Amino acid sequence: MQFKRILLKLSGEALMGDRQYGIDPKRLAEYADEIKKVVDQGVQMAIVIGGGNIFRGVAGASTGMDRVQGDHMGMLATVINGLALQSALEDAGIQTRLQSAIKINEVAEPFIRRRAIRHMEKGRVVIFGGGTGNPYFTTDSAAVLRAIEINADVILKGTRVDGIYTSDPEKNKEAVKFDFISFEDVIRKGLKVMDTTAFTLSQENKLPIIVFDMNKTGNLVKVVSGEPIGTTVNL
Question: Does the global pTM surpass 0.85?
């Protein structure tokens, strides 16, 4: 395996499957199977998951809700998704720990960096919920922050498209896919890989990002093995 310790970033919408909202148990089970293949190879893994399938603070703010209140609701949504993913992983025979950036001790451990690293060293998958614990920061920012803190080799951003394109491939059939692209080119071309805060933090810490199609069976193992899947963003 090319990478020994990875952070996998999943969107909340990824858990919806073909549904309009909520969580699709079938999709959860599929993800758990994909993750198990990687863990069985001895790769240490942490996961950050969004909450957009349940609630988005930005969406709430656009309808007049207090942004801070909305973001706190979004943080709780990520914990709900973390619990669902934890259950699916454990059904697949994977030991997990859910850590939260907000105190919710009855259902999740508090985020403690050294404890998270120790869990991974013991072969457990660590799911980070609650975002960064602060409003105005996305789960993309949380993913980069946690990846840096745990000394991950790479951030794997699992999406429903197979990489980064010159424009949205779902809207423009003429869009061209990048196999490799630099941080500078992503910024110069205005490509939406992650939000600006997350992307800049990744660039400053020289942490590569690989964007790939998580919904295609076997892709996660291929990415971790170093096969040219998706798009790699690096210096």
Answer: yes
